[in-house]
Amino acid sequence: MSQPPTSHPRLLAWIDEVAALTTPDRIVWCDGSEAEWTRLTDELVDSGALVRLDQKKKPNSFWARTDPSDVARVEERTYICSDDEADAGPTNNWMAPAEMKQLMTGLYRGCMTGRTMYVVPFCMGPLDAADPMFGVELTDSPYVVASMRIMTRMGSDVLSSMGADADFVPALHSVGAPLSKDQTDAAWPCNETKYISHFPETREIWSFGSGYGGNSLLGKKCFALRIASVAARDEGWLAEHMLIMKLTSPEGVVRYIAGAFPSACGKTNLAMLDPTLDGWKVETVGDDIAWMRFGEDGRLWATNPEFGLFGVAPGTDFHTNPNAMRTLAEGNSVFTNVALTDDGDVWWEGMGEPPAHLTDWKGKDWTPASDAPSSHPNSRFCTPIEQCPILADEYHDPRGVPIDAILFGGRRKTTIPLVSEARDWVHGVYLGATLSSETTAAAVGQVGVVRRDPMAMLPFIGYHAGDYFQHWIDMAKGASGDAAKLPKVFYVNWFRRGDDGRFLWPGFGENSRVLKWVAERLDGKADAIETPIGHVPTPEALDLTGLDIDPADLAAVLRVDPAEWQAEIPQVTEWFNRFGDKLPAVLWSELDALKARLADA
Ligand code: GTP
Ligand code: SPV
Ligand code: MN
């Protein structure tokens, strides 16, 4: 082992302990340098784990294929190991911490044999934050190291900032595939047995068996949402699955908007939106995670703790998300489970006409006549956020941005109108708590099933969801008692469909029309109809300049159908019942009030 570049006693002791357990052949401290990136990616290319893309088309970029069994987050294998089972609540898997540690210690024993253990010091959010949030990931996956370098601030600077005594979240990761002598490595080593475990009291993460994104890049969902949500509950802030954007009107009025949509439901696209409305400007602050704290002004300020974008590839194109395409053209990216073109570029469904021949995500020949898609529906690009051409300057500011509006949204074919505005904060919390969406390929399991996904955080709340709802309601107290300082809450749905299955609303850049209505509501300018579910724009209140939309489609996408909403009531009741007496009573009152309004409608 090379001389450790730190004297941090707790870190050194932990590394010794993990090394003794997992028995790696060597330990490498990651410095985050360009030279290190080059060495790692060269090694991965030499071993066949990565393919280097064409230097002109995608400079310094790579194509990765996973094992076909390791393509998404594994919610069934994800655990919140709180001391008390009641603290994990009904929405999380739970195991007692000692039991989980014993079980996983068995799995970890010798699991890094034949491999390198990388020490990855990282920081979620800017290093010059008042209270930088450090983590250290120990991993035996060089793919994870390369990805962590894109997704987080990582390396020597972080280690020096940590000094000898900074607090950090220890995050242990292994693909769970020890290598014996003479054994050739798999292109994507992983283990059929997977555990993604969180210990909220001790703020630790133990991950085993998967190399995929949310299961293995432990700064992201595991730290910045599951562990951070627990810290946020204790300290009076919010760690949320939200995009953050800066919206500027033609008059130069700036609004900061956060948006919580479940996985693969449009956060990255909205965060990077290219407005079709003249004079409106969107700039990106974050596309997946927001940490929101009260400022001295009593307003809620949001920061993006990440350093990269880990975005859904299929559907991304110059027509839908040109800013993502421009970000990727800069290179320095890793593409996972997309298709490879014969001239060394990447391709995926939604990127216009398919080439005559591709190598698909399983490494097989693919032609337009092939039955299966060329790219996995949860294939991803991993790319530095600083390459985004519309990155807001405020991204770098450790104080973040003061949030004017929160959008909740999901993927619903029916019922939910294009946009509605909550009546007040508690009604907004009700909308978030009852948010529903069709499941997507971002998690292993059936796709297209409607489920409740509160605040788009169902798989990410690190404690009891009933307590989480109460925490959201209590945020009203943080605003120095002035509810007017809280963000206004809106509920959007880009995915409503007609009887023929078509999307009723064109989405993407056209969503700027909805953003304009939101901004005008904040200014008290735009018209709305009061419906039982909240304030919905009149068709005239939406700026439809230059948009060719059938008036019948517009009416259908804005429609609030009391019968459809009545049909949701038993599902919401059943959902709320799951939380027993942990469900804040005011949410039952909101449901009762909704029922009464629907009965009168
Ligand atoms: P995660 O990274 O999993 O959290 O996903 P996300 O919420 O960032 O979703 P993303 O923006 O990557 O979009 C997911 C899928 O929805 C992509 O295939 C997009 O093309 C598609 N999508 C995004 N916005 C819209 C929209 O306004 N309308 C339609 N029809 N599809 C959209
Ligand atoms: C999500 O599923 O919400 C993602 C991808 O952003 S992952 O990093 O795998 O969680
Ligand atoms: Mn996400």
From TrEMBL:
Q: What is this protein called?
A: Phosphoenolpyruvate carboxykinase [GTP]
Which HAMAP family does the UniProt entry name for this protein? PEPCK_GTP
Q: Which residues does the UniProt record annotate as the domain Phosphoenolpyruvate carboxykinase GTP-utilising N-terminal?
A: 14-233
Q: Which GO terms describe its biological process?
A: cellular response to glucose stimulus; gluconeogenesis; glycerol biosynthetic process from pyruvate; oxaloacetate metabolic process; propionate catabolic process; response to lipid; response to starvation
Assign the protein's first listed, main location to one coarse class.
cytoplasm
The residues the record assigns to binding Mn(2+) are 221, 241, 288
Cofactor(s) needed:
Mn(2+)
This protein's pathway: Carbohydrate biosynthesis; gluconeogenesis
Q: Is Manganese tagged as a keyword? A: yes
SUPFAM superfamilies found in the cross-reference section: PEP carboxykinase N-terminal domain (SSF68923), PEP carboxykinase-like (SSF53795)
Tell me which residues bind substrate: 73, 212-214, 263, 378-380
Q: Does the keyword Transmembrane helix apply?
A: no
Q: Which Gene3D superfamilies match?
A: 3.90.228.20, Phosphoenolpyruvate Carboxykinase, domain 1, Phosphoenolpyruvate Carboxykinase, domain 2
Assembly, per entry: Monomer.
Cellular location(s):
Cytoplasm
Which InterPro entries does the record match to this protein? PEP_carboxykin_GTP_CS (IPR018091), PEP_carboxykinase_C (IPR013035), PEP_carboxykinase_GTP (IPR008209), PEP_carboxykinase_GTP_C (IPR035077), PEP_carboxykinase_GTP_N (IPR035078), PEP_carboxykinase_N (IPR008210)
Q: Which residues of this protein are catalytic?
A: 265
Which residues are in the Phosphoenolpyruvate carboxykinase C-terminal P-loop domain?
237-597
Q: What class of enzyme is it?
A: lyase
Q: Which family does it belong to?
A: Belongs to the phosphoenolpyruvate carboxykinase [GTP] family.
In the UniProt record, which is one GO cellular component term?
cytosol
NCBIfam families listed in its UniProt record: PRK04210.1
Q: Which gene encodes it?
A: pckG
